[in-house]
Amino acid sequence: DVTTLTMVPNVNTSVSGGTVGCYHIRLGAYGDFSAAKHAASQYAGGFPAYVSGKYYAMIGNYQSVSAANSARVSLGVAGEIFTGSNRCVAVTKTGTTQILFEFDAGTSANLAVRPVNNFGRAVTWFKNYAYYGDFEYYRHVSDRLTVINVIDIESYVKGILPYEMSSSWPAEALKAQAVCARSYTIASLGGYQSYGFDLTADTYSQVYYGTNLANANTDAAVDATSGEYVTHNGKVCSAFYFSSDGGATENSENIFLTALPYLRGVTDPYEEDVPQSLNGYKSWTRTFSGAALRSKLSSSGYKGGNVVSISPAYSENGNVIALTLADASGVSVTLTKSACYSVIGLPSVRYSVNAFADSSGSFAFEGSGFGHSVGMSQFGAYSMARFHGLNYRQILRFYYTGVSISKSV
């Protein structure tokens, strides 16, 4: 009967209504949840709890053993002072310190919440974003909660699409993005297994913020490609994608660690048709002094002075795959793979380097594109659909070498 819930770890936790204490008065064990709830309801601040396979009635939430013991004496009850393990999670009523339920199964199980809606599919709001599916709460770090959304893959992709690609973009581009997201998901399952989930909700995996921005266009793209994956030799591909390649994508081993046969760099003529007003990274310039570059390189083990020379090495696709920077005495460091843009803070690996002719000691990096340049360019997909009338299968086969678009896996 309470629809606004706040989950807290079993430590003294500040919430909007005060502090939820982690010490309680534990009464006896009961045969089931209903019996424990009934017994707890006889006391102000009472609540049921599930601890190590048994149901208990608890009273109150106190911030210290002494406070809990004083309350026990005042109430005249024969219970014991209790606090949960470092996996214990309490369910409270949002905006209050009232505990509704407490769950502690150690490392054997997580607290799970399944939203229910009698008039349609349930949607749960979490930090201003709305999501389908169920939720688990897991204390991988003792005083922090990891929130896990448990959801079917099609609903998950619907919660990715409008955040990875604008819902106003052409339908065929949206379909291509949907198939990429679905494929990347399957290929990445288990990637964070030690933390209790498969994928993160940010750019480390895919940006996933649920239903807020989803509309008929994005949902239709997911539905139209339901169950379809990018495959190579019968195996689902890690269908990497990014914003803009600036003219050519890159071989996976030149950016990441592994050479994958379907992630081969291709010359991309399509992005040129997208105006700068839409793709703000169609061309860009970044300028750094030699001193600023020295500071940025310190994280990569560079021990030299201000940078006075830079030598890029290019792949056959025209992207920078090695970058050597040196000071006046010849002390140097060579960046490779994704470090060629990430360490310095450049938008992409597609650039040239020019030293200023004056005495400023600065370098201009002039380039195009945004992102790691492996797999599908989102702006390239936009152009292929908008200006060239190509469908999502043609888009995917252009950016991924030797692949098939397969139904189910």
Give a quick precis of the structure:
The protein is α+β, with helices and mostly antiparallel strands. It has nine helices and 25 strands. A seven-stranded mixed sheet has the order 1-8-9-5-6-4-7, with helices on one face. A three-stranded antiparallel sheet has the order 10-13-14, with no helix packed on it.
What does this protein structure show overall?
The chain is α+β, with helices and mostly antiparallel strands and 409 residues long. Helices cover 21% and strands 29% of the residues. It is built from 9 helices and 25 strands. A 7-stranded mixed beta sheet has the order 1-8-9-5-6-4-7, covered by helices on one side. The longest helix is centred in the middle third of the chain and has 18 residues, at 171-188. The chain is globular and about 85 Å long.
Strand order, main sheet: write it out.
1-8-9-5-6-4-7
Helical fraction equals 10-25%
Share of β-strand residues: 25-35%
Q: How far apart are the termini?
A: 41 Å
Write the layout of secondary structure elements.
Blueprint lengths: L4 E5 L3 E3 L2 E3 L2 E8 L2 H8 L5 E6 L2 E9 L2 H11 L4 E3 L6 E5 L5 E6 L6 E3 L10 E3 L2 E3 L2 E5 L7 E5 L2 H12 L6 H18 L27 H9 L3 E5 L2 E2 L4 E2 L41 E6 H8 L11 E6 L5 E7 L5 E5 L2 H4 L8 E5 L6 E6 L8 E2 H9 L5 H8 L4 E4 L2
Parallel strand pairs: 5-9, 17-24
Antiparallel strand pairs: 1-8, 2-3, 4-6, 4-7, 5-6, 8-9, 10-13, 11-12, 13-14, 15-16, 15-25, 18-23, 19-20, 20-21, 22-23
